[in-house]
Amino acid sequence: MLEDTEWLSDFAFFTDLLCHMNNLNVKMQGKNQFIDDIWAHLKAFKLKLNLFAGQLAKNDLSHFSRLNSIPSVNEEKLKNYEDALKKLHFEFERRFQDFSAIQTELDIFTMPFNVNCEAVRSDLQLELIELQSNNHLKQSFLNMPKLEFYKSLSKVSFPNLISHAQKISAMFASSYICEQVFSTMNLRKNYFRSRLTDEHLASFLRISTSHFEPQYKELLKMKSQFHSSH
Length: 230
Description:
Elements: H1 5-27, H2 35-57, H3 65-68, H4 75-95, H5 97-101, H6 103-110, H7 122-132, H8 135-143, H9 146-152, H10 159-169, H11 176-188, H12 198-208, H13 216-221
Helix pairs in contact: 2-4, 6-10, 11-12
């Protein structure tokens, strides 16, 4: 089998391709990623697929190191790999076409200072003009996380923009959080913790999967009397 150069070239090509796809998968995991971040990774990967296909057509294997290590890969094989990449690109386009349909909505959330005010919904146009004309807010946007920036906006001046940001940020970008919750639940709820109630379990999960800090001072104020041993 190792002497079969055609099998080796196929194996090398798909290994290289899976490495690229695995890199995409890793980028899409983790906390604090909004749907626009995921879409940015997907768009970048689609552009990479176009680049790969074009380079293979020119016998350029720069981004396929394992395939490049196979001596004398024939042109027919390279054409097959090029076609496979084009088909994969088409599948990405088809599978994620819903993202393309809301591209403008995502752009408003991601880069509100760069969008064309005439190309957005009418209820956002005036607020975007006010936002883009405010240099102080522009500087704040550059120096703050997106969610914190939208939290800092005036609810009186930018009610529709805030509502739009809430809608976009509430969209689940991946199943990472759900998987984390289930893993945490399995660790907490076991045979040795048979007295763990559903209420306590819910509290455990909320603490484990959020970044919210308990308001200790407020909690202490609610206590009129403390146990003598504390």
